[in-house]
Amino acid sequence: MKIGILSYYPGNKRPSIEETRLLKSAREMGHKARIIRVSNCQLVFDGVMPYVLLDEKKFPHFDLVIPRVHVLKSVDLHTSILHQLELMGIPTVNSAVSISHAKNKLYTMQILSHHSIAIPRTMVIRSQKYLDGAIKDVGGFPVIVKTPFGSYGSGVVIAESKRSLVSALDALWSAYNINIVLIQQYIRESKGRDIRVFVTGGKVVATMMRAASRGEFRSNIELGGNGEPVEITPEEADLAIRATEILGLEVSGVDLVRSKRGPLILEVNANPGFKKLEEVTGVNVARAIIEYAVSKVEKQQPTTSSLSLTR
Fold first, then answer.
1. Element at 124 (helix H, strand E)
2. From first to last of its 311 residues, what are the pLDDT tens digits of the chain?
3. DSSP one-letter string for 6-66
4. What is the CATH number of domain 2-102?
5. Count of CA atoms in the C-beta half-sphere (13 A) of 214
6. Which helix H or strand E contains 2, and what residues bound it?
7. Distance between CA 61 and CA 226 in Å, rounded?
8. What is the location of CATH 3.30.470.20 in the chain?
9. What is the pTM for the complete model shown?
């Protein structure tokens, strides 16, 4: 099978560790695979049939494409290449629409809450005049403040007082050029720990407990957090799988915390890293992704060949 790893890394940077792992795993399994840079792709609209070029040449034939979308802003715009590949009949894991939805933390909270998925109490505000009400509504200080877009802990701060909250909002609104923030309940009993649940094809592949480093409240590995293997409960597994499916994702990294009222979903990542997860658990996550993607294509009924939709 011919597999494309669609990389959103700039062309002057080396592929990410995850992209390299996916490439290696696919080849070890006997597939032909290569990394395609989005920055080297061109979209062509001619009023007849839109198509994609790679370095101004015919786009290669792929049986499936696995995107690694690292962008945080203007996600809909950046995933236009991925969406066009889908329109050309090429199966993808994940889809452009599901990635766009999951990259927006506000939308994620909105849709999960609509489907009765347990999350920390959250208020979305657009003006500082609503701060006092938001603080009261989520249970008082400390509170977590998040921008709608962010990854690896960026755009997330903790505020212990009204003064620190106002300062944090000023900084976030200035840095991200947006006046929408999520004020979220701080789960004290989690003590800076959360669980990363990696879901692929409706199954839990690997799990890891993450703990924040000294002086930090965010448990992200990229910020110095520590990871260790952890067994999760059937309730936690079901919650992570349901959250993934509700957002339309096939591969996700679900972050949840254990609270007094049960497990709560913090975030659902559409482009989850898995380097540390593989190191900690010994699970070949990259292989699991490839296996699922290939099985998905094999189960699909024959459709219009992607070759007939490229030029």
1. strand 122-125
2. 999 999 998 877 899 999 999 999 999 999 999 999 999 999 999 888 889 999 999 999 999 999 999 887 788 888 999 999 999 999 999 999 999 989 999 999 999 999 999 999 999 999 889 999 999 999 999 999 988 876 655 678 889 999 888 888 887 777 777 788 899 999 988 888 899 999 999 999 999 999 876 655 555 555 456 889 999 999 999 999 999 999 999 999 999 999 999 999 999 999 999 999 999 999 999 999 999 999 999 998 564 444 334 43
3. EE-S-TTSPPPHHHHHHHHHHHHTT-EEEEEEGGGEEEE--SS--EEEETTEEPPP-SEEE
4. 3.40.50.20
5. 0
6. strand 2-7
7. 41
8. 189-294
9. 0.89
Q: Are 69 and 151 in contact (CB under 8 A)?
A: no
Report the distance separating Cα 307 and Cα 302, nearest Å.
13
Q: Which helix (H) or strand (E) holds 99?
A: helix 96-103
Which residues have CB under 8 Å from 124's CB, separation 6+?
Answer: 106, 109, 180, 181, 182, 183
DSSP state of 93: S
Residue 194: count other Cβ atoms within 10 Å of its Cβ: 24
Question: Count of CB atoms within 10 A of residue 203's CB?
Answer: 11
Domain 121-186: top CATH class: alpha beta
Q: How many residues does the chain have?
A: 311
Measured in degrees and rounded to the nearest 5, phi and psi for residue 124 equal -110, 125
Which residues of the chain form CATH 3.40.50.20? 2-102
Tokens of 181: 């923030």
